[in-house]
Amino acid sequence: MNRLFKSLVVIFIPSTLVLGCASGLGAYKKGNYYEAVLESVQNLRRSPENKKSKQALALSYQAAVSLINTDIQNQINSNAYLKWKNVIGSYQQINNLYENIRTSPAALKIITKPIDAYKELKVAKDSAAVECYNAGIQEMLKGTREDAKKAYFLFTDANNYSPGYKETIELMLQAKTNATLNVMVKASPNNNFGWNFDPVIFRSNRNQFVAFYTEQQVRDKSVQKVDQYLLVSVNGYQESRPSLSKNTQEYQENIQVGTKKDSTGKEVPIKQLVKGQATVYDKQILSSGSLQLAIEDATRSALLNNSIIQGDQNWSCRWATCGGDMRAIPSGIKNFCGKPELYPPSNFLINQTKKELDNKLSNTISEFYSSY
Is pLDDT at 236 greater than 80 in this prediction? Predict the structure, then answer.
C-alpha cells in the first residue's frame, strides 16, 4: 500500500508543477503580463476549468494592455529613430492577445470584450511608411554603397507598410543598383582537362548585393561600372603511378575437430593444429589538382584575393592470395582471399578531384563575398 502511494505521489507532483508553470501566475508575479496572458490562454485550451489559469488571465490581461499602450504613447511622443516600427510591434502584440482570447472559449468567458488595435495598426503602418521613406532618402543622399543598402531595406519596409507609397518601388530598384557590387568573371585560360568552373562561380554568389557577369554580358547589358574582376586559372592536375605493396604472413591455429571422454567420463575437446598463409596486396593511386582564384579591384588594380585551392584524392584496393588450411587465416584477412586485382574506373580520379575543387572554390567565393 505504501509503495503504491509513493508511486502516485511521484506521478502527481510533476503534473501539478507543469500545470502551475503553464498557468501564467508565475509570469504575472514577475511582471511579464503579456507572457502571462499567452500562457494562461494556452493552458485554458488544454484545461478549461483550471482555476490558476483563470486567475492569471483575469489579473494579467488589463495590466498587459495598459503596459503596452503606455509603451506606445512613450514611443509616439519620443524622437526615437524609426519609432513607428516599434509602435507597429506593440499594436501587433495587442492584436495577438485579442486573437488568442477570441479563439479560446474558456478565455473568452473571463475576458468577454478583448481589445483589438487594427485601426490603430493601420495608422501606425502609414506613419511607418512615411518614416522609412524619408529615412531611405537620407541614406541615399550619403552616396556610399553601404548607405544604399540601408536605403534599400528602408524603402522595402516602406512599401511593405503601405504598398505603392509614393515612388518606393522605383527607389528600391535604384538603391539596389547603387548598392550592388558588379563583378566581371574573366574567361579562364584553356586547360588540358576541359575543366569549366563558370557554373560553379555563378552558383557561388549568395549575396543579393553582388552581381556576377561574364565579359560578354558586360558588353551586351552595357554594365556602366565594373567594380571587380574575378579569374580562376587551373594550375595543373596529376595522378601518381600505382604503388603496390604486399605482406606475406604465416598463420596457425588450434581448432576443435571433435570431442572425447577423459578418464573420468567427461567430454573434452579434440584439437588440431592447422596452418595457412596469406599474401595481402595493397594498391594505391593518388591524384592532385590545383586552382588559383584571383579577385582584383577594377578601380585601383589592387589584388583583393589570391587563393591557391588544392584538391587531393586517393583510390585504393586490397586483395589477397591464400594457401594452406583456410581455417587458420583470420576472418579479417580471409575476406580478401580470392578477390581480383581492381583498377579505378575511367576518369574516376580526375572527376573526383574536379568535384572537390568545385566545392572548395564555391566555399571560398561565398565566404569572400559574404561581407559585401
Answer: yes
